[in-house]
Specification:
Layout (H helix, E strand, L loop, with lengths): L1 E3 L5 E3 L13 H9 L3 H21 L1 H12 L7 H13 L8 H30 L1 H6 L1 H32 L7 H12 L1 H6 L2 H30 L8 H33 L10 H12 L1 H6 L2 H25 L17
Antiparallel strand pairs: 1-2
Helix pairs in contact: 2-5, 2-14, 3-4, 5-7, 7-8, 7-10, 10-11, 11-14
């Protein structure tokens, strides 16, 4: 394209740059970034809290059986279905909802910081790196954003997760979360009682969340490529279907990666586990007593079922709530091929 200047000389007009959000002018790019403001991040955090609280709460019975299998594999040795039957026969059906309160509250808080944090960090990383570099580095951005967000979330989750495991491993310990938490502080102290599992929960949750978001993002991208469509070209129902499908795969991958730490976390919150000494010493004792293969495999099938369905549900609910709140979810876009995801 050429343009005529006031001096009647011709010059080539520069083509407008393709932005990360497929806009044609610098002003347009600025306007597009402006949509990702505090309101957007609050909507993302609320959607994350709802999706994590609902899914973890709904799967409380599965988690109760899984935790029993990890804590007492000799007694609970007949698989997931057999574990359900044992719990119901020995303690009644109500025992399957043990820890329901701390599970819902704890994972709502965790989801708030995890999903909200991932949105915050990945958008700001992308904005700082620029369009081409952020597209090239989208997987490292997913991984770094997930790790940072999960670390913050776990600070708030750890006391509630410790309370949940205490109630599941010893149903007679206290009748509810409200009564259990002050009893834990009285019996063990604040740090030992609530944060003995902080190392294992980081070891479990950070790799889990990194795999969860990175794999989901990569699989969703492949699905959109296979469909030859972008998220903007898909209906809300279509995008949610992509999130559900990619979420199942991401959940199974994340479950396998994080399972040894999940077993350690379940065991260290059991009274007397690992003997005395520091948390690190107790963890090493538990690992030696359990053995590597058992750490990796005990309860893994149940956890894959649980985490695969849970993760799919989380991404599906997250997208649904974001749509209901009027928020347009951030997606990376190739600036050299803006018509493809």
């Amino acid at each position: 394209m050429i343009s005529n200047t006031s001096s009647n000389k011709y010059r080539f007009a520069q083509p407008a740059p393709l932005g990360l959000f497929n806009v044609s002018t610098a002003a347009g790019t600025k306007d597009k970034w402006a949509r990702y403001d505090l309101g957007y991040f609050v909507k993302g955090a609320l959607s994350g809290g709802i999706c994590c609280g609902v899914t973890h709460g709904a799967l409380t019975p599965v988690d109760v059986v899984k935790t029993r299998m990890q804590l007492d594999p000799v007694k609970y040795n007949s698989g997931m279905v057999g574990g359900f039957r044992q719990v119901i026969a020995n303690e009644g059906a109500g025992a399957l909802l043990t820890g329901f309160g701390p599970t819902c509250i704890g994972y709502f808080i965790q989801g708030w910081f995890k999903f909200g944090g991932v949105e915050f960090f990945k958008i700001n990383f992308a904005k700082a790196l620029g369009e081409e570099k952020s597209w090239e580095m989208r997987q490292p951005i997913y991984l770094a954003s997930a790790a940072l967000a999960e670390f913050i979330a776990d600070i708030f989750l750890c006391p509630l997760e410790a309370t949940r495991i205490k109630l599941v491993s010893n149903p007679s310990y206290a009748p509810s979360m409200v009564s259990a938490m002050p009893k834990i502080v009285k019996d063990e102290g604040f740090v030992r009682g609530f944060y003995s599992g902080f190392g294992p929960i980081l070891f479990k949750q950070i790799p889990y969340t990194m795999a969860k978001f990175a794999v989901q993002g990569a699989v969703a991208e492949k699905i959109y490529t296979g469909l030859n469509k972008t998220p903007a070209q898909m209906s809300n129902a279509g995008n949610i279907s992509v999130s559900l499908g990619s979420g199942v795969i991401a959940g199974i991958a994340a479950a396998i990666i994080s399972h040894p730490a999940d077993t350690l976390l379940s065991k260290i919150n059991k009274a007397g586990a690992g003997g005395t000494g520091s948390t690190t010493t107790r963890l090493m004792n538990i690992a030696r007593e359990t053995g590597f293969m058992k750490l990796c495999t005990t309860g893994l099938g149940a956890r894959c079922v649980m985490i695969g369905s849970l993760t799919a549900g989380q991404f599906g609910i997250f997208d649904t709530v974001m749509n209901a709140l009027g928020a347009s979810k951030f997606h990376f876009t190739d600036p050299k091929n803006p018509g493809a995801h």
